[in-house]
Amino acid sequence: MAMGSCRREKFFTGSTSLQPSRDTIWFDTLFTKHSGSGYPLSVTKMFSFKNREKTTVKANFRLGGGKNSAYRFNVDGVAGPEITNLEIPGKDSVFVFVQCTLEANNLTQPAIVLDSLLSTVNGKEGKVLLAAYGWDAHYVRDSVLPCGGVWSDKVKPYVVIDNVLVDSLCTFTIKEGVNVYCSARSRFFVAGALRIEGTTAERVRFTGDKPVYNARFLPNQWVGIHFLRGNANSLIRYADIHNAAIGLRVDSLPVGGPFNLTLENTSVKYCGQVCLAGITAKVQATNCLFAEAGSYTFLGLLGGNYSFRHCTFAGYVYYGARQDGHFAITNTLRDGNGAILDSRDLSCTAYNCIIDGGNKEELAIDNAGAAAFATDFQSCLIRSKSQPFAGMIYNRDIRFKDMLRSNYALDTLSPAIDAGMVLSPAISVDLKGDLRDGSPDVGAFEFKK
User: Fold this and answer.
1) Closest Cα to residue 221, out of 242, 204, 196?
2) Which domains, and CATH codes, for the chain?
3) pLDDT band for position 4 (cuts 50, 70, 90)
């Protein structure tokens, strides 16, 4: 009778250590924990450990800070903070997933938080450094902002979680130098008036809640600023509103004021859908940049009154399969089959503006409604096959300084230089606050040697 036998696994017993794919796991800057909530959710970093030997090793893993560490990890699905006798076959690897949650540090500037993930094989230890900066913030969650309230802290950022509202008949002010970070799906609703008062030296910044360099070009990190029906007299000056789905949405004509929204020296970029959307709204924009949107840099829907002076509309980066022009105006509202549901008067003026992009036609004009449709475009550079406006400069290479890095200042040979007309009242500075000369350049930026 034959007897079966079990082969015993051989383990490496000599001196060795695991080979990490990275020696430092860097989380960059993270917001510290919002008291009483699970916010912010941690990003997850991944790396691997490789067994250098030909035979299986038994490895132990632990965090240097133990149970009190700000970090947590798992190795091939086995959770820490301590793992013992994990078998890794010869020349094979295991994958490590690390997360980080930082407690408030009560400091005005980001503070570094360090730990190590230690791996041990047969008594020989290896180390992978874990590092993150923790940044305390003012957290505002699902709140109606106080009437007459002000955000003015230039050092400690404001973080919007979910939604906030400026109520009707109220004014809320954001002062120069303030940074506002918005969580996923968050909206900044305005039923009253919002005043964003940046300066040339200290701009106000709105963006998603990932304060790291590699997230700055990503759209759809938050929903955007939404001016509700009945709002009036809002002002945004010297601000950067980036990484939203719809950067600015303005609903309905104002009540008791000349404009729903006045924009000055402001950039709205990296939006998943639209940079500026007006729905029967009244908006004036001067020295503004609207760039890099999934569908439209500007959408004027169902009429409205829009005035653009020295603005640049640029659509070169595609977050989707954009087919239509990115500058769109219409006096209609249509259903999904294209039938007109409603029509309202539209007036749109554009003086000394650039409308350019990667398509041959960057205008989308629908004036089929019964309501009035009035346009006045003067001294503009436009990318368009249809060329609907007389006296424009069409289809020239604008020669921006560096489109790949979203630098829409003018290069030396740009046809926009000195191509503008002098407006009344004159506009003396550009988007950055630099002086314009007596022969103004077209677009948001005045050329500087």
Assistant:
1) 242
2) 19-134 (2.60.40.10), 138-410 (2.160.20)
3) very low
